[in-house]
Amino acid sequence: PGAVWHWSGGAEILGGLGLLLQYRVPLPEAVRLTAGGVTAAYVADQCHKLAARLDGGTSLTMSLVRLRTLPLSIVPLVRWGEQHDALDDALRAAAELIEGRLRSRTHVLAQIVPPLVFVIVGVSLASAIMALFMPLISLIQGLS
Is the dihedral of CA 73, 78, 84, 90 positive or negative? Predict the structure, then answer.
């Protein structure tokens, strides 16, 4: 579940950046604006660190590699976007990629969690019943 929350923040960053870059907002400013629009404080903090690196002249690709805020699997896509002046499209494609991963992970969780909860409740219930009847069984054995 931790990875799911982390990746959802990453998809949020990428989608926001892609949208702002589409309207020609400069990259460091777009990152700062994205930080103001994300829901998780950790993600916003990572955006501010990313903006500071960009202000220092580091490329987005190298900043992502050094910070490891987002999954490294999107780095080639971001590099391609920087090299071909299509960073907004590359970031939106990366957001879709991460959202696809999120959907598959949440689908797996939705398949695994209900049976697991059922087993845990069953074992707990069986333990409670045994704990209630053990003194009674012990008393009956003591009388005979």
Answer: positive
pLDDT tens for 84-116 read 999 999 999 999 999 998 898 889 889 999 999
Site of tokens 């900043």: 63
CA distances from 122 to 54, 109, 125, 128 (A): 54, 20, 5, 10
pLDDT, tens only, 21-43? 999 999 999 999 999 988 888 88
Number of residues that make up the chain: 144
CA dist., res. 127 & res. 124, Å (int):
5
The burial class, CB within 10 Å (0-12 / 13-18 / 19+), for 65 is middle
State how far the alpha carbon of 79 is from the alpha carbons of 30, 63, 109, in Å.
Answer: 17, 11, 32
